[in-house]
Amino acid sequence: MALDFSVLLRFQDALLKGLLTTLELTLICIVLGCAIGFFVGLARTSDNRILRGVSGFYVEFFRGTPVLIQLFWIFFCLPLLLGTELSNFTSAVIALTLYMGAITSETFRASLRSIGREQYDACVALGLPRWTQTTSVVLPQAVLRAIPTLLSNCISLFKESALVSAVGMADLMFVGSNISNNTARPVEVLTVVALIYFVIAFPLTRAVTFIEQRILTKLAV
Amino acid sequence: MNYSFDFQSVTRNFGPLLDGLVVTLQLTAAANLIGLTLGFVVALMVMSRWAVVRWPATMFVEFFRCTPALVQIVWFFYCVPMLFNVFLGSVTMGILALGMNLTAFNAEAYRASIQAVPREQIDAGIALGLNPLQRILYIVLPNAFRASVPVLLTNGIGIFQQSALVAIVAVQDLMYQGKTLATQTYRPIETFTIVALIYFAVSFPVGQLVGYLERRRAGLAG
């Protein structure tokens, strides 16, 4: 069969718009998800049994079910339960944020655990209040150590964001499959869509390796 | 909230959901079979001395790791029949698409643990006069396999979850049956909750097992 990639030129703007939606969604969910993830990570290492139980259940549930079903659940069921309409952007943000929160909390938990007991003891010895201890001692170290894994989590989220096309949000994947259906040229269109995702995700995976090898060893954390 | 739950509309239709679960499990098992075997081969290729072998394998791995699984599956379903003129059943296509994805991820897991096999063990193999194939089969493979079990299990259960994506290209797995049932019964909350719980019931024990294996390994090492 003859491949003709020039059909795609006509759809440049549409694809660009889809890509922007994908990036916007990913960025919003990264910020919100990391914030949730950090506090859930703290909650999972807390002494309070109830806090630990609830946060543990949240994390296990979101890591143990397909993202697609989380998305469907929030898209179809949450409006029924709340009795209000949710735009598909809002439900996509909620679903992906909760997913991101669950996976980043595991990252934060691992990095929190790597902070030595003596650091907490030092905080007690210095008489630092709990809040200062968290924000000035625990947070900076945990974040620094978590950076490579967090970046991997961001890449995962970027890839998972393609799922929102299944609930009709006009992201890159959705635009791509629409164009491919309309032009009957799936090979060209879908290949280009895949390449666009690749071009963004690949440098980020290299960055993860780079940070792991250079920056973290240099800082010796 | 004044929603009256009716879980019976779902439990009455449990048959299709179970059929779907069987398809999902078949997809997972077959994809894991492909991923566990081909993944090791690809890992060896990625570490090969010859660039001709290394480059295609590296590109394969990076490409599958850096694009969304959904794009891969949709691409596979639309483009493979057009490009290569092969027409396979949808379950077979699903298995192949998921299997290739898992191959790439497992290759990375194997590579990391192969590189962690201490150099002296391989030197010992050379000293004992084992040929390269024997060194791989008797020294590298058992060592690397044991070290990578937790990651392989995590990847395997990951593909169980990713397999829900084939519902989008109309393979009749658990997710697809759930979607159909939700539309037929007008009971999305009950249906999707039960479907989510079924996925959870399968993934959770495996996740716990991984945690246990990792703790035991850390205990042995320390």
TrEMBL record, chain A:
The primary location reported for this protein is membrane
> Does this entry carry the keyword RNA-binding?
no
GO molecular function, a single term: transmembrane transporter activity
Residue limits of the ABC transmembrane type-1 domain? 19-208
**Membrane topology per the record?**
Multi-pass membrane protein
Q: Where are the transmembrane segments?
A: 20-43, 64-83, 89-108, 192-211
Alphabetically list the UniProt keywords: Amino-acid transport, Cell membrane, Membrane, Transmembrane, Transmembrane helix, Transport
Compartment(s) = Cell inner membrane; Cell membrane
- Superkingdom: Bacteria
Q: Which SUPFAM superfamilies match?
A: MetI-like (SSF161098)
Q: Which Pfam families match?
A: BPD_transp_1
Q: Which InterPro entries match?
A: AA_ABC_transptr_permease_3TM, ArtM/GltK/GlnP/TcyL/YhdX-like, MetI-like, MetI-like_sf
Query: What GO cellular component entries does it have?
Result: ATP-binding cassette (ABC) transporter complex
List GO BP terms, alphabetically. amino acid transport
How does it associate, per the subunit comment? Answer: The complex is composed of two ATP-binding proteins (GltL), two transmembrane proteins (GltJ and GltK) and a solute-binding protein (GltI).
The record's family statement is: Belongs to the binding-protein-dependent transport system permease family. HisMQ subfamily.
Protein role = Part of the ABC transporter complex GltIJKL involved in glutamate and aspartate uptake. Probably responsible for the translocation of the substrate across the membrane.
The name this protein goes by in its record: Glutamate/aspartate import permease protein GltK
Which species expresses this protein natively? Mesorhizobium metallidurans STM 2683
Gene symbol of the encoding locus: yecS
Automatic annotation (TrEMBL), chain B:
Q: Which PROSITE patterns match?
A: ABC_TM1 (PS50928)
Report the locations given in the UniProt record: Cell inner membrane; Cell membrane
- Pfam families per the record? BPD_transp_1
> Which biological process, per GO, is one annotated for this protein?
amino acid transport
Is Zinc among the key words of this record?
no
Give TM regions.
Answer: 20-47, 59-78, 84-105, 151-171, 191-213
UniProt keywords (A-Z) are: Amino-acid transport, Cell membrane, Membrane, Transmembrane, Transmembrane helix, Transport
Where on the tree of life does the source sit, at the highest rank?
Bacteria
Topology versus the membrane? Multi-pass membrane protein
The family annotation for this protein states: Belongs to the binding-protein-dependent transport system permease family. HisMQ subfamily.
* Role of this protein: Part of the binding-protein-dependent transport system for glutamine; probably responsible for the translocation of the substrate across the membrane.
Concerning PANTHER family, the annotation shows: GLUTAMINE TRANSPORT SYSTEM PERMEASE PROTEIN GLNP, MEMBRANE COMPONENT OF AMINO ACID ABC TRANSPORTER
**What's the name of the protein?**
Glutamate and aspartate transporter subunit membrane component of ABC superfamily
Q: Which organism is it from?
A: Mesorhizobium metallidurans STM 2683
Q: Which gene encodes it?
A: gltK
